Amino acid sequence: MFAGPSLPQRVRPDSDVVMWRPPARRGDLDELDLDPTITVVLVDGYLVRQHPPSPTEVFNLIARGHEVWGCSSLGALRAAELRNHGMRGFGWVYDRVVDRTITYDDELVATLDPRTNEATGLFLANIRFGLDQLITAGRATQSQAEFLIDGLRAVHFEHRTSRLCASLATSAGLNASIIDRLLRSDVKRQDATALVRQLITSVLAQ
Q1: Would the pTM count as exceeding 0.90?
Q2: SS3 98
Q3: Spatial distance between the Cα atoms of 191 and 205, rounded to a whole number of angstroms
Q4: Of 38, 59, 76, 148, which is the most buried if we count CB atoms within 10 A?
């Protein structure tokens, strides 16, 4: 399982059936020398400053006999691209890439702490999910959500901070408790956690 900021080490399920790898770079999948019965899960990969695994690299892994899943971040992007070529996608982020609600890679990118590889900025995809939940609960309107998304989209991902999001949300008319709930949204982690638990259960049931 290639994971990073979407599923930090401190919150990963504890299981001896998972081999954890850092976010994937170009060439990492080609270099894997594993039994084809081993499932490969792509959660995170480098999207800026370094090249991520290409769709061809993922496809070659599938051609070698591996079951390959993707979710949350780069994994969701590649799974959407290769959904008709054997890669399996999972979760809310994957679904939003497939239906083209998420059309820009930068919704899945944030500034990271170089020491821990955890996010210090906001993932716009998480805010989009949080707004969807608030609209469903009747705590926010579609126009408020669009105002907030447009405001965050207008700045580079490195400048998408909790402070900026809170300021925009206040301008949109959301109250402090709603804003706090919004800022705690983390669908990227939710998707990754659910998928790895599902796969662990499947392995242990065999």
Answers
A1: yes
A2: helix
A3: 21
A4: 76
